[in-house]
Design goal:
The chain is mainly α. The chain contains ten helices and no strands. The radius of gyration is 19 Å and the shape is globular.
Length: 225
């Protein structure tokens, strides 16, 4: 570990997974104590992980000054936005490659990989290259058919964040929120997300927590529009 943005983002992400498990209702039957879905715990981890590039969180927790917060705010948001948009295209490569590979595993997978890279990442394949570059992505072997959970998690992270800012914090500032020492935010997450665990179908849980089923509109509002 090093004292940099990458590592604090990783720690916040993993702590997000841990608090989800910590505050599940352990009075529930064992078979429903898992998260509502894999991507719902990813969403919490991702929402927390984003704070590593949030200048208000850095002021509240790392002690940067108000002047420094203002100085870095724009670049912090642009960095987070770039990360999100680049990742959204990369996730498309993984999803569509795996989907096509399982539909037809005997096809030319080397060709398929670069077809997906060119289509979704807009990157040109190296001329004359015909190597199993797809096999360097460890998720294909170790956690197959998982990558869509990351992008769905990012959508839900934005949906939860928007709901919390609007209805729990009751603010119109959607950029400079850190949730630090805000008990109301913790109570909301515990009662609406963590404690129900897998008692409800995941989209029903999201609707109970936010008033809407999973939607991409808050992700688009936060990072695209």
């Amino acid at each position: 570990m090093k004292p940099n943005s990458t590592w604090i983002g990783t720690l916040l992400h993993e702590f997000g997974h841990s608090v989800y498990d910590r505050y599940k209702d352990f009075n529930l039957p064992f078979v429903v104590r898992d998260p509502a879905h894999t991507f719902t715990t990813e969403a919490i981890a991702m929402m927390f992980g984003r704070f590593s590039s949030n200048p208000q969180w850095l002021k509240d927790n790392a002690g940067i000054s108000e002047d420094e917060k203002k100085k870095i705010a724009d670049n912090c948001f642009k960095t987070l936005r770039l990360d999100q948009l680049v990742f959204s295209r990369w996730a498309q490569v993984m999803y569509h490659f795996e989907k096509s590979m399982y539909e037809n595993p005997d096809q030319d997978l080397n060709q398929l990989w670069w077809d997906m890279v060119e289509k979704y990442q807009l990157l040109k394949r190296p001329e004359g290259r015909n190597e199993p570059d797809w096999a360097t992505k460890i998720h294909i072997a170790t956690v197959p058919c998982y990558y869509h959970n990351y992008l769905m998690g990012e959508l839900l992270a934005s949906q939860l964040y928007a709901y919390i800012v609007t209805n729990v914090i009751k603010s119109e500032d959607f950029k400079l929120q850190s949730f630090t020492n805000n008990k109301a935010v913790g109570d909301y997450l515990k009662t609406k997300i963590f404690m129900p665990a897998n008692m409800y179908y995941w989209n029903d849980m999201i609707e109970k927590a936010t008033g809407e089923k999973l939607t991409a509109k808050y992700y688009a509002k936060q990072f695209v529009k």
